[in-house]
């Protein structure tokens, strides 16, 4: 993550939070505590059993427990900042997306909604009660967010219209590489990667959260030792050495050793 992106992290349209709903809260807490060094504090009571992960005194993510009768797959959700969750939700609908939950109040945290874009990728809206401060960075913190979808340009227009992003194509020597960077005020805040038929059938279009680690290969190995799995092994990517992994309940996320 660049310093420019970090500085814009609280502006509307910028990824500002990540959360995970799971079936076993305690075992999931243990997994991420071992992998990333997270500690936990209680979250908003309105959300049921929910904790906030803390790293070096900064809140970095939320983890909640699903009701016992919920037969849902677990997945990390990226939240995009907004100054008006209700107005943004209406814009989501008007541009062909879906609002599945909310907007609703989440206590002192503010107002939230769960939406999906026209191709089905789920994301959240967060209207913070107070302006967010500087987001944490370093090992164990989310440092980048990428939408993995069938085709980048069409869905990129949705995010441009709803959030004011400026989509910039990533120029490479290959015409087969379908990749957009989403900018705000000329600062990169997220990306869209079109993978066509390579899109995983078990997940469909999805936002992928990248967590920074000191050593991608060692972290991927630790994921296996803790009962998770490696989806895509460590490799060199646009933002450093990265790997795609899943926790023991199947929630997929990325590990990246950022270039500094």
What shape does the CA trace take? Answer: globular
* Number of extended strands: 16
Strand order of the largest sheet: 2-3-4-1-5-8-7-6
Radius of gyration: 17 Å
Ranges with pLDDT <50 over ≥5 residues? 1-9
Mean pLDDT: 88
Number of helices in the DSSP assignment: 5
Order of helices and strands: HEHEEEEHEEEEHEEEEHEEE
Class by alpha and beta content: alpha+beta
Strand content: 35-45%
How is this structure best described in words?
The structure is a single chain. The protein is an alpha+beta fold and 260 residues long. The protein is built from 5 helices and 16 strands. β11 (178-184) and β12 form a beta hairpin.
Defining key terms:
single chain; 260 residues; alpha+beta; eight-stranded mixed sheet; 16 strands; disordered N terminus
Task: Describe, in short, the structure shown.
The chain has 260 residues and is α+β, with helices and mostly antiparallel strands. The chain has helices spanning 3-7, 25-36, 85-94, 152-163, 216-225, and strands at residues 15-22, 39-42, 50-55, 58-65, 76-81, 98-105, 110-116, 122-128, 142-149, 166-169, 178-184, 187-194, 206-212, 229-237, 240-246, 252-258.
Which helices and strands occur, and which strands form pairs?
Layout lengths: L2 H5 L7 E8 L2 H12 L2 E4 L7 E6 L2 E8 L10 E6 L3 H10 L3 E8 L4 E7 L5 E7 L13 E8 L2 H12 L2 E4 L8 E7 L2 E8 L11 E7 L3 H10 L3 E9 L2 E7 L5 E7 L2
Parallel strand pairs: 1-4, 5-8, 9-12, 13-16
Antiparallel strand pairs: 1-5, 2-3, 3-4, 6-7, 7-8, 9-13, 10-11, 11-12, 14-15, 15-16
